[in-house]
Each structure stands twice: as structure tokens, then as C-alpha cells.
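C-alpha cells as discussed.
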């Protein structure tokens, strides 16, 4: 009795997996193809900021901002 139920259950699962498009209304061709919008995505281009020269406590350093200049000088252990 148990084997009959197991066989019936496995047969139903196989049938459902083969014909899933009938239950969800989607064609198999639609499931296989990938969306076109994701394949043609181009990364955004950006402009690099130019380095500016800053003078902090008598030291000259090229950096993007005054805060960045201070960090660069601290890293070099000049201040």
C-alpha cells in the first residue's frame, strides 16, 4: 500500500515538473531566454577629480580636498 502511494506521488511530481508552463501560464521559451536589458548594461563613466596643491603647516601636498591633504600628511608622519 505504501509503495503504491509513493509511486503515484512520484508520477504526479514528474508530470507536474514536465508541464509546469501549463499551470503558471508561461511558455517554456520565455523561461529559457534572458532579458535583453540586463545583457546590454554599460557601466557609467565618471570624470576623475584633479589633484590640487594644498599647504598645511608649511608642507605642500597634492590632494583632492583639504581633509584628504591632512590625511596624506598624517600618513607620511609630517604632522
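Sequence:
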Amino acid at each position: 500500500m505504501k509503495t503504491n502511494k509513493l509511486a503515484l506521488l512520484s508520477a504526479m511530481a514528474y508530470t507536474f515538473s514536465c508541464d509546469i508552463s501549463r499551470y503558471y501560464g508561461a511558455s517554456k521559451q520565455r523561461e529559457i531566454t534572458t532579458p535583453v536589458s540586463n545583457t546590454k548594461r554599460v557601466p557609467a563613466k565618471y570624470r576623475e577629480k584633479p589633484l590640487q596643491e594644498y599647504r598645511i603647516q608649511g608642507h605642500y601636498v597634492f590632494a583632492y580636498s583639504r581633509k584628504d591633504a591632512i590625511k596624506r600628511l598624517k600618513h607620511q608622519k609630517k604632522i
